[in-house]
From TrEMBL:
It comes from Trichogramma kaykai. InterPro entries: Znf_CCHC, Znf_CCHC_sf. This is CCHC-type domain-containing protein. SMART domains: ZnF_C2HC. Residues 55-70 form the CCHC-type domain. GO terms for molecular function: zinc ion binding. SUPFAM superfamilies: Retrovirus zinc finger-like domains. The keyword Metal-binding applies. Keywords: Metal-binding, Zinc, Zinc-finger.
């Protein structure tokens, strides 16, 4: 959709698809740091631990995600004592969810 039409649709707050009026809202992706993997900031402003050499899937160093044979483990949920049976890159880990909730339009 062209930017000018998208801006008009967002201002209106809904679009019509067939016989149905659908509410719409803007969505901005959270910036994501490639150093510590946390949402909310970028590499240039990172003060977190350097996780750039770690596997995105299971967490330890020594291999990359393409070579990973381990079960997925989210390092963020593991640090907080939560269920961590998903990869750290998964959009469903709690830290990203909280950040995305705060950023909703």
């Amino acid at each position: 959709m062209p930017d000018d039409l998208a801006a008009k649709a967002l201002k209106l707050g809904h679009i019509r698809i067939g016989w149905v009026n659908c509410r719409i809202r803007g969505h901005e992706d959270a910036p994501h740091c490639y150093r510590c993997w946390s949402p909310g900031h970028v590499l240039a402003r990172c003060k977190g631990p350097d996780r750039s050499a770690h596997c995105f899937c299971c967490g330890p160093t020594g291999h990359r995600i393409k070579d990973c044979k381990s079960n997925p483990t989210c390092i963020f949920c593991q640090e907080q004592g939560d269920v961590h049976d998903h990869a750290s890159t998964n959009d469903h880990y709690r830290l990203t969810q909280k950040f995305n909730q705060a950023c909703r339009c």
